[in-house]
Specification:
The protein has about 230 residues and is of the alpha+beta class. It folds into two domains: about 1-80, no CATH class; about 150-230, Sporulation related repeat (Alpha-Beta Plaits), CATH 3.30.70.1070. The protein has four helices and four strands, in the order ααβαββαβ. Strands 2-3-1-4 form a four-stranded antiparallel sheet, covered by helices on one side. The longest helix is centred in the first third of the chain and has 27 residues, at about 55-80. The protein starts with about 35 loop residues before the first helix and ends with a strand.
Length: about 230
């Protein structure tokens, strides 16, 4: 070849023309151009006198990366085994004072003497009802004889029916004003124990003749001289 240095295939030594991409004898891709791979392939041929091909560079790069990665892993593992304790940062705090529980005051309760009655409920109220009070009728008020009542009374006066009931009522009020008890007027015709045809002025309603006799004596002392006791029966 003329006009420059003869170019030989780094694998088989077959000459090739400038700009030829592959060796026509062994098919090796020739290092043409001015890139990094071309410069590396030229340096390889100058150093060793042959060139295995461009595939060598990715292989060498991968091998280099693997070696570096393995070395880094070994260093990290060694540093991890060397520091077995974990350091924890703590912040200094304020010292705390011991808390003393508050004292409980003890109050002594008064002692109840033995035998003293104690009450556990509201005060008891007396169950006995108060005595009944009887209101005395006002002076001049007349009393009616109870229906179907048989008893004893004091006959103060007997006034004929033809004289009128008003006279009997007037005499009965006079006896009430004199202080005689339970003074009233009876129609003698309605009672079997009395003579019919009279307005009977009476005082008191008694259960026995003895009490009626005593009341008759009291009536005589109050102006009714003819007063006497009598049983009243329907």
């Amino acid at each position: 070849m003329h006009g420059g240095e003869e170019r030989l295939c780094p694998r088989c030594g077959t000459p090739y023309a400038p700009g030829q991409e592959y060796c026509l004898e062994c098919g090796l891709r020739l290092g043409v151009g001015a890139g990094p791979v071309a410069r590396l392939s030229k340096a390889w041929r100058d150093r060793f006198g042959w060139y295995p091909g461009d595939w060598i560079w990715p292989v060498l790069l991968g091998l280099l990366v693997a070696v570096i990665g393995g070395a880094v892993a070994v260093v990290v593992a060694d540093s991890g085994r060397g520091s077995g304790n974990t350091l924890v940062a703590t912040h200094p705090g304020r010292p705390t004072q011991p808390v003393t529980p508050p004292q409980t005051a003890t109050v002594a309760l008064p002692t109840v003497p033995t035998g003293t009655p104690t009450s556990t409920g509201p005060p008891q109220t007396p169950t006995t009802p108060p005595p009944a009070t009887t209101t005395a009728p006002a002076p001049g008020t007349l009393t009616a004889w109870p229906v179907d009542r048989t008893g004893y009374t004091v006959v103060l006066e007997s006034i004929p029916a033809n004289a009128g009931r008003s006279l009997a009522v007037e005499r009965a009020r006079a006896g009430s004003r004199a202080g005689l008890p339970q003074v009233g007027v009876l129609n003698s015709s309605l009672y079997s124990s009395l003579h019919p045809g009279y307005w009977v002025v009476f005082s008191g309603i008694y259960a026995s003749s003895g009490r009626a006799d005593a009341a008759a004596q009291a009536a005589k002392g109050k102006g009714f001289a003819s007063a006497y006791s009598r049983q009243i029966t329907r």
